[in-house]
Amino acid sequence: MTHIYRQGLDKTAANHTALTPVSFVERTAGVFGDLPSVIHGRRRYTWAQTRERSARLAAALQALGVGPGSTVSVMLPNTPEMVEAHYAVPALGAVLNTLNTRLDAPLLAWQMNHCEAAVLITDSEYGGLMADALRRLRGEHGRQPVVIDVCDSEHAGPAERVGTHEYEALLAAHAPLPRLEGPADEWDAIAVSYTSGTTGDPKGVVTHHRGAYLNAVCNAVTWTLPQFPVYLWTLPMFHCNGWCFPWTVAMQAGTHVCLRRVEPAAILNAMREHGVTHYCAAPIVHGLIINADPALREGLAGVRGMVAGAAPPAAMIEGMAKIGFDITHVYGLTEVYGPASVAAKRAGWAAEDLSEQTRLNGRQGVRYALQEGMTVLDPQTMAEVPADGQTMGEIMFRGNIVMKGYLKNPSATAQAFAGGWFHTGDLAVLEPDRYVKIKDRSKDVIISGGENISSLEVEDALYRHPAVVACAVVARPDPKWGETPVAFVELKPGAEVDAAALIAHCKGLLAGYKVPREIRFEPIPKTSTGKIQKFQLRERARSASAIE
Question: Could you state a single Gene Ontology molecular function term (predicted)?
Fold first, then answer.
């Protein structure tokens, strides 16, 4: 029998609305429309103007046939147009596909075909590349999206138009939609993002409006982000939709400070010129800041950064603390909208010495407030490991901030969600305070003579050498031990150190069997977000072993 609290108490338009981050834009434009929304070189917009431009873009896309379930691909750097796409496309119930600006033409064509892109918005800087991708898309897949060119006034280099429409002219030709509303069902897809390729096997991660809304709120709650922050775009907005920060900044009526190029001088000059309060970046970008000319950092102590994208080396966290930046360490994956856990800082940590603070802050931490579950489970039994800081298992998530699944890949979706949890593939321990600490990716553990070696532990040791700017450790086949660690190293400009010195350095920090048997001074392949592509390094290590 239905109980009394289900009688005459139905959902109505007055008391129930589908959650969508598009609503943040309408609220902020209505209440704080006169405040700055976007700074990009010489261009300045208020929230009223950004809302109007987004609504004009939505109207133009609608006129081109975009509607619920349509895919709009965008090939854009961190510019106002990229911000506007995050507001306009979801407002139509369409799905935003942000393309990685460092991909090659065959992969771009494959992705646009896989997600059935109806429209492509592309910056003219990438005209030659996108012309090649579009030829392949048409010739190999028979697909021809409508193409809109963005001719950014702040781009001074080579440019090529490849579309039938120009962005600003298209906006001028359409009256803005009266309201940016979003879909009726919050479970509808908001974006499809392709995994960044650290495994060599990209999959289309489909996320929904509910999750994007909740993670945008979590970003603010986790970071105690105040109203009216000044947020610098060092993180590519194409990566996990900028970790949902396009919507977080809208919610808090902040200012987007856009950067086309992520370079130390540009980052630090923008921070100083615009009074930047917050930014997000992968460890490699924080490394650029640490190693920048100290004069560029003068007066910037207290800027708040968020780091994720890869397990950050302890030396990076310690280095940022020494120069006075306040860093929050978060962890996540594309499948959980970017960051979904945080090394939440407890008040007592401030009393610890810097080394212990670095250790505490270097952990992957605890789940975001609106994520239902995050723990470390034995992937075979699905039982939680003991909180002893020793027993390894796999990090798993469940809740509203987990993807819908992989596009057109039901088997991979089922595998990822086996047992009612999302399997990350990251191996970790639960420490006694129930904070999670990653030990390695499952495929990156090196098994040498029956002993497990964490590649991250060896990398941490290498990063503590002052000459090392980037490193990665992978397994090399060994006839006696099965596998031994080999390290790929990049040195800071002007630094000099040989392999013997680095091996001696590691011997002072690691058990003997964990010390790299070989050091290679070679360029390290990385994704555009700073993740090291270890699958390429494993191939190098195997190839070299075969030659020998």
Answer: ligase activity
pLDDT tens track for 115-140: 999 999 999 999 999 999 999 999 99
What's the pLDDT tens digit per position in 308-327? 855 667 778 888 888 999 99
Q: Helix H segments across 261-394?
A: 264-274, 283-290, 314-322, 354-361
In the chain, the largest separation of any two C-alpha atoms, in whole Å, equals 78
Pairing of strands 278-281, 422-430: unpaired
CA distances from 479 to 91, 177, 219, 546, 548 (A): 59, 67, 48, 11, 12
State how far the Cα of 85 lies from the Cα of 90, in Å rounded to an integer. Answer: 8
Q: What are phi and psi of 446, to 5 degrees?
A: -100, 125
Q: Which of 173, 207, 195, 232 is nearest to 86 (CA)?
A: 207
**Could you give the CA distance from residue 165 to residue 100 in angstroms, rounded to a whole number?**
22
The CATH code of domain 262-441 reads 3.40.50.12780
In 474-484, which positions are buried (b, 16+ CB within 10 angstroms) versus exposed (e)? bbbbeeebebb
Q: pTM of the entire structure? A: 0.85
Give residues with Cβ within 8 angstroms of 424, minimum separation 6: 333, 335, 394, 395, 396, 397
DSSP state of 365: B
Task: Convert 151-182 to b/e letters by CB count within 10 Å (16 or more is b).
Answer: bbeebeeebeebbebebeebbeebebbeebbb
Tokens of 288: 């650029």
Instruction: Assign domain 22-221 to its CATH architecture.
Output: 3-Layer(aba) Sandwich (3.40)
**Could you count the other beta carbons within 10 Å of the beta carbon of residue 450?**
7
Q: Which structure tokens are listed for 342?
A: 């945080």
Among 185, 250, 191, CA closest to 216: 250
Show the CA angle centred on residue 224, arms to residues 305 and 371, nearest 5°: 95
- Asked if 22-221 and 445-547 have one fold, the answer is no
Name the residue type at position 18: A
| Number of separate helices (H) and strands (E) present in the chain | 17, 26
Q: Could you say which architecture CATH assigns to the domain 445-547?
A: 2-Layer Sandwich (3.30)
